[in-house]
Protein: ABC transporter ATP-binding protein
Organism: Albidovulum litorale
Amino acid sequence: MTGTPPRLEVRNLVRRFDGRTVVDDVSLTIEAGQVTCLLGPSGCGKSTTLRMIAGVDMQDQGTIHVDGKLICDTVFRIPPERRSIGLMFQDFALFPHLSVAENIAFGLKGAATARVDALLERVSLSGFGPKYPHELSGGEQQRVALARALAPSPRILLMDEPFSGLDERLRDGIRDDTLALLKEEGTAVLLVTHEPHEAMRMADEIALMRRGKIVQQGAPYNIYNAPVDREAAAFFSDINILRAKVQGALTRTPFGEFLAPGVPDGTEVEIVIRPQHLKIDFDRAGRGPNPTPMDGTAARATVERARFMGRESLVEFRMEEGGEMLKATVPAVFLPKPGTVMWLMIRRDRCFVFPSNG
């Protein structure tokens, strides 16, 4: 007995423009009630992928399936309005000449008053039905756009940078409310964003896209803590890089030796450390290295500059050995003077070793 097919399945999508491959062999599956974020920099092919799934653009290769049924290949194509796929864009695209209630009811068949009222209540806009879009704030317009997208009860909702037009102070609350409503509806969601924070906050699964390809896919925790390469690590946060060569499956750094099993001797590698995992050894005071299993060897460095960032302080150091510039984040206010010599340690369990050639 076979299991239930995924709500959305995309197989080997390819899209070319003027001989340039914009989407290159993209495959995805999304279950009912799951939120998947297609994450990547501008121009990497995210929105083009969304347009092909929506049916407003045609792929050059690959297939798209909803609930196990083919809806589009390079020959057969179900039109967009019959795909049971909702769309929500960053500009909300509300009709200015229609009231809020009319916007939400647009596309519904038959009596829609009960559905509209129920959705307005669920997006905390009860009584807003007679208003017009120009009378609403950006956050209120976003809620109306969400209600309109959900009104026909689509199996799948595609969201293209839906929160980028909102004031930063509003985003977190509206994202959380939106996510709760989508989960309640059981809708499969594919959200396109270039913001790692948004993807980490909303997604059950992240598909990291780069130059038309999905380079890594998995739960946010796994993507963040086991990046596939240096570029993937750097997309989610600032990083520090130590460069070294492998000899005898080891690579030497100011913080001691790192294992590099299976890497040929002479290979240049990059050891990636996030600023929050670079620790200041406040207790050292001239003693030998503190041999904690987590942090290993301490290394001397000189403070170049320090800045308070609101929730934490960012301190930049120049390493005594090797001369690399490294950044460390310290909770609260910590502003040592430039020229101060300090000892640094690292979270070895949070370091990543990658070949320098990627």
